[in-house]
From TrEMBL:
Record domain Thiamine pyrophosphate enzyme TPP-binding: where: 386-533
Identification of the protein by name: acetolactate synthase
Domain Thiamine pyrophosphate enzyme N-terminal TPP-binding per the UniProt entry, residue ranges: 6-116
Occurrences of domain Thiamine pyrophosphate enzyme central (ranges): 198-293
Organism of provenance: Mycolicibacterium sphagni
Amino acid sequence: MDRQQRVVDHIVDQLAATGVDYLFGVDGANIEDLYDAAYFHDGVTAVLAKHEFSAATMADGFSRAGCGLGVVMATSGGGSLNLVPGLGESLASRVPVLALIGQPPTAMDGRGSFQDTSGRNGALDAQALFSAVSVYCRRITSAEQILTALPEAIAAAWRGGPAVLLLPKDIQQSLVPVRSRLSSAPEPTTVGDPWPIARALRRARGSVTIIAGEQVARDDARDELERLRALLRARVATVPDAKDVSGSPGLGSSSSLGVTGVMGHPGIADAIRDSALCLLIGTRLNVTARTGLEEALGGAPTMSMGSAAPYLACTHIHTDDLKASLSQLAMMLSGYGRRPNGVRVPEVVGHEELVPPRYDGDGIRYREAVSALDAVLPDDVDIVVDAGNTGASAIHNLPVRRSGRFIVALGMGGMGYSFGAAIGMAFGRGRRVVVVAGDGSFFMHGMEMHTAWQYRLPITFVLFNNNAHAMCVTREQLYYRDIYSYNRFRPANLGAGLAAMLPGLHSVNVAEAGQLPSALGEALAGDGPSVVSIECSADEIPPFAPFLAALQKSGSHIGPQGRPTTEESRPHVAARA
Ligand SMILES: Cc1ncc(C[n+]2csc(CCOP(=O)(O)OP(=O)(O)O)c2C)c(N)n1
Ligand SMILES: [Mg+2]
């Protein structure tokens, strides 16, 4: 007779065999068997998060940073529901994640069991819910089903997005025959033929501009893209959530045009207008990424290669493997008679910055804080940036480190993503991660810092404390006549507060720009986590193109205290919430 093992042991064995070494989650009665199985498997570490959203972003950050399949686990009911925004981000950004979600025992389905989400007899339908935020969702109703569902789920996740397995407690404990291990070899995928692009490049007369997207990171194709860029002597811009795929030291920094779109660099439109050919590589160019470029792209010959066609009409080559397709393209353009002889090196590579209006009020300027961080950050550091004015400033002005990752979750743009993502990345990459997040994002999910402190992870949390949801304050000022504010907070002292709460945590407040270099330097020098909370102002306008355009359009100017005012500007009144 076959040897038998529990479904949970089967899952952990198979995941380990495909290279999974971390599971991120929060425990509970309907997922504890999986924690138990992980405990007895030497190669697998189960990490305990404080909130399932952050467990999901740990898995997302781990996967996005190229550390392998991100796996998250959660119990039934409220625990499972907390995963939804995290999985939504992974879905929108096509990040490979596997979610293992506990369910109450099947015998009680539709009979009023605690946390019933069977969809029966009026219960919430987890299958329907999670189908909407995943690329694969299956409720396992007999032990044998796991033998086919698990490899299907893993394969679906690798095609780009979260796969969900709903695992009732009794099924988790049931026995299945011990199987040979899954192979870690990925399924064969569609490798697009880049010949039409090679032909166009050979005919091109002038310079080439490349806009690179997040699929370059997903397919681990940075080196292949760099080879192509060097061959074409092209200028490269990246979409905001793919800042680390090109243009950093070692990856064509001297040809970098910066970031496209709302937080982007204005010179990119000119570069495109001036190009004989524009190549979109691994991006659909959504609105956040293409704002300000549509007119230029409409006028320049544009071709695309990637797993999904861009939102703009152009010739598109479908490929699920950019690494292979970019290599093929470089080969097609190498050797005697194959070179694209008409491509020209552009004369100047402009790297123009957005220039927000000068602000002379209280606090440290975003630009100053970001520059101070840039000056002290070593090469081998990864960066995760959160939402808001803080995020826009860091995306616009903070360069990627050599061989570093720069992660930002623009799929759903949910605040608080950075805290869990940094933890996932620190486990996966084993190097320091720097989080740049606003105080509002901190108040949402910053308590996950406790997990970094508990596991002594090398993460430096740089908080921009403007005592507000400042991006919303800016919107009130620019679009709602600046006559009230819902979005300012009663001031808090984050640095001192965290130092008191988590003994031994290096955590400081900085209110003077002159203190930034030493405070940031000290925070980066230690072994474990650290916090630097920088006092900023909610009245400063960040480098965010729509805000600057609105300012210009309304004829707004900077008032006597440095506060941007509009014609109708009236004094602030505290809004009643
Ligand atoms: C989960 C979530 N809720 C609401 C929003 C809308 N939103 C965008 S930015 C922002 C304020 C961000 O505040 P903070 O993190 O302090 O950054 P700041 O803009 O102050 O620099 C809000 C509420 C969002 N992006 N995500
Ligand atoms: Mg804030």
